[in-house]
Amino acid sequence: MTQRVSTGRLAGSVAVAAAALMVMAGCGGGSGDSGAQGGAPSGADAAPQTLNVFAAASLKDTFTTIEKQFEQENPGTDVTLTFAGSSDLATQINNGAPADVFASADDNNMKKVTDPGLTAAAPARFATNTLQIAVAPNNPKGITSLAQLADPANKVVVCAPQVPCGSAAQKVEKAAGVDVKPVSEEQDVKSVLSKVTSGNADAGLVYVTDVTAAKDAVQGVSFPDADKAVNNYPIAALKSSKNQELANKWVQAVTGPTGQQTLKAAGFGAP
How many Å apart are CA 203 and CA 155, to the nearest integer? Predict the structure, then answer.
């Protein structure tokens, strides 16, 4: 009797286990089929694509604006922007920095990247820029001309010669016959502007776009010889990029209508 009861319970247990296995097999089979048919992650689940953009310091505001729209139009894309003097960025790229796109504030520093054959295609010019004198609000020193920057009584800051804004400063000084003796030479235009806004300099030679971006923090003084040194801004996708398609899309975003509108609003000239 006991043996029959035990046997009956065993049979019932086997039946239950068998049923459970069938259910599990059904679930497992569904999972297996799903993996075979759609093993690749969907767009929502895909790992983000990172795009490393190296850009001249003067492009910080405009490229940050373009970045937001670009990421919206390309879901799953994370744009990493690195801003510095074009000379420093060109050196980093030549030393193997993982950049996908390079946007320079002049042709000379782009040439440092194209000469070794590091770009995927010929650079495209996307903007121009000119210099302006940045002074404190209300212009306390009454600076109205480039010639006044040569007065030792005025503390003037410029970019270093190897930086595009520094090279442009040398050109306009030569054209105007003015010899400015700066109290410091900075590695990018944003640093020059910072010296003026902090009160450590009476004036600085920066781009028109930097004065525009600074709004009420500084006042801009235009001068006639600024047009003697118009800077061209070229951009190119780099050959070492692991995502050429995305790099090319960024170039197109900058050179296309929306990018050009953003640059124009910031004070950049047409390419």
Answer: 7
Q: Which residue type occupies 114?
A: T
- Phi/psi of residue 191, nearest 5 degrees: -70, -35
Mean pLDDT of 238-267: 97
Domain 49-128+233-265 is classified in which CATH homologous superfamily? Periplasmic binding protein-like II (3.40.190.10)
Q: Are 126 and 259 in contact (CB under 8 A)?
A: yes
Tell me the residue type at 271: P
Q: In what order do the strands lie in the sheet with 101-103?
A: 77-84, 49-56, 101-103, 231-237, 124-129
Residue 76 phi/psi, 5° resolution? Answer: 85, 5
Position 41 scores a pLDDT of 41
pLDDT number for residue 46: 60
Domains 49-128+233-265 and 131-228 equal at CATH topology level: yes
Give mean pLDDT, residues 29-51.
51
Note the residue count of the chain: 271
Amino acid in the structure at residue 181 = K
pLDDT of residue 48: 80
Show me where the domains of the chain are located.
49-128+233-265, 131-228
The larger pLDDT score, comparing residue 234 to residue 6, is at: 234
